[in-house]
Amino acid sequence: MTLYIDPPTWPGHGRMWSHLVSDVSYEELHAFAERLGVARRAFERDHYDLPSHRYTDAVAAGALEVSSREVVRLLHASGLRRPKHRPQSGSS
After folding, report:
1. How many other C-beta atoms are found inside a 10 Å radius of the C-beta of residue 59?
2. pTM to 2 decimals?
3. Could you tell me which residues come within 8 angstroms of residue 27 by beta carbon, excluding any fewer than 6 positions away?
4. Calpha distance 56→54 (Å, rounded)
5. Are 16 and 8 in contact (CB under 8 A)?
6. Residue 67 C-beta-side C-alpha neighbours within 13 Å
């Protein structure tokens, strides 16, 4: 199981955020997030949004640190990318 996280450089709601992704499946991603205690509502189409204070928790749990560009590349290469303009099918 390999999960990936980019640096917390995305601003929103008065915080900085990272994106946590899988290059294998959403099931793998959900299971990892659950072990971290991350609420399912933090799932955004194809990734979890993690606030900066949770970044080290994710890395300590095994997520690999990659650039934001690499997160997008991994999602595209795996076929797991869900752009905003494309509707989701289900919530998994």
Report:
1. 14
2. 0.82
3. 92
4. 6
5. yes
6. 3
Strands 47-51 and 10-12: unpaired
Residue 60, both tokens: 């300590």
3-state secondary structure 20-87: EEECCCHHHHHHHHHHHCCCHHHEECCEEEEEHHHHHHHHHCCCEECCHHHHHHHHHHHCCCCCCCCC
Q: Give the confidence band of 4 by pLDDT, cuts at 50, 70, 90.
A: very high
Q: Are 23 and 71 in contact (CB under 8 A)?
A: no
Phi first, then psi: give them for residue 58, nearest 5 degrees: -65, -40
CB 29 within 8 A of CB 12: no
Quickly tell me which residue has 């690499």 as its tokens.
Answer: 70
Tokens of 8: 């917390």
